Amino acid sequence: MGQDPGSGPLEQVTLLRAGDRSDAIYDEWADTYESDLLDRFGYSGHRIAADALLEHLTDPGAAIVDYGCGTGLVGELLGAAGCRIVDGVDYSARMLDVCRAKACYRSTIEADLTRPLDIPDRTYDAMICAGVMGAGHLEPEHFAELFRTVRPGGPIVLFGNATPYVEEGYAARFAALDWTIERTETVNYMAALNRPGALVIGRR
Ligand SMILES: C[S@@+](CC[C@H](N)C(=O)[O-])C[C@H]1O[C@@H](n2cnc3c(N)ncnc32)[C@H](O)[C@@H]1O
Which residues touch 82 (CB under 8 Å, ≥6 apart)? Predict the structure, then answer.
């Protein structure tokens, strides 16, 4: 499955290899991330993921965690839909600065999602994670620690680059984790590029 890597910081994060970190690139990109992705490349991953989660939420008071919240695009959509309790977690301090200025999260936490998290088991009713799938970001095995923080039965929505999803066997690797996958879908998520994304919806 081929994809256009884009250019500038988008290309840099797209071409990262297993074991690389991406926080320095996102720190540098933070101030122009939204204009770049939304206006230039037509990014819609945040919207695809948020819409999928909203289909599964019945209670606007549900406690939701947004892993890899970045500048808060997902939180803005969830807030606009009436969700009142959304926490965001990310390891880029500069992306979090932009996010915090929007005040659409109950709290934001700076943490590396490839490491054990200081969040108790079953803290959240639902989880969303958009644009954080692949080398230099999160691989399927990293999600076990994130799923632990969601209560049994809680909806989980993941959305990310479909190229590693297909080429690196993510479907089987996600299926091996402690959750039930209900639906997967492939959809282009950058209108200006050939950039297929994988939407994975399941329950803890
Ligand atoms: C493409 S952005 C997506 C941001 C947001 N979810 C969106 O849809 O616009 C990826 C985000 O994941 C964060 N990220 C990548 N790897 C991470 C890790 N190991 N721990 C915490 N955050 C990570 C980056 O800092 C960045 O903010």
Answer: 60
